[in-house]
# Entry
Amino acid sequence: GQNIDQPTEMTATEGAIVQINCTYQTSGFNGLFWYQQHAGEAPTFLSYNVLDGLEEKGRFSSFLSRSKGYSYLLLKELQMKDSASYLCAVMDSNYQLIWGAGTKLIIKP
Amino acid sequence: IAGITQAPTSQILAAGRRMTLRCTQDMRHNAMYWYRQDLGLGLRLIHYSNTAGTTGKGEVPDGYSVSRANTDDFPLTLASAVPSQTSVYFCASSTTGGLESEQFFGPGTRLTVL
# Structure
């Protein structure tokens, strides 16, 4: 079966750095997406990785290792507004997104 | 309209009733999707459409139907609602259904079936 695993909840301090991990087992791989979802709102796109390595976009970076079936999202200089759920999704061989359950990130002052 | 709109925002429905959730996008995207989101579970794909006139089944299609008569609209119908269909429903769209195709989401419809 297809499976995306990520921690249920993480807590971090304002101004700090946090790494949210995602491991996956899917039928085929056509890229990995990270989305942010604030409570009661729709998911919004953060990043896309299809090749191994690190993609940096401002305070957010995303890393992919296809051989290990592993990705992480790195958030730097945390702000209170970063409190949200972070969703990992893999595009499978049918070009459909398989979603993890999401990681709820709580930022404390 | 800017982006994707969904209607209604929320709905309470008696079991056995028929319900259509509406989704409209103005970005001229070819691909559209319907997901449900339940607590503790990831988004699950119900149905999708890669282009107007075509539809396909996702992971959890039973009890739902869709149509794609034109590019902009992608309604989801529950023929006879059951309590297990209580969920938050998101419509999404992307330029294509292929690689690097970021999906844009509507605000969601919160549906409760009693």
Remarks:
- The first strand of chain B starts at residue 4 and ends at 7.
- The CA atoms of residues 20 and 77 of chain B lie 4 Å apart.
- The mean pLDDT of chain B is 95.
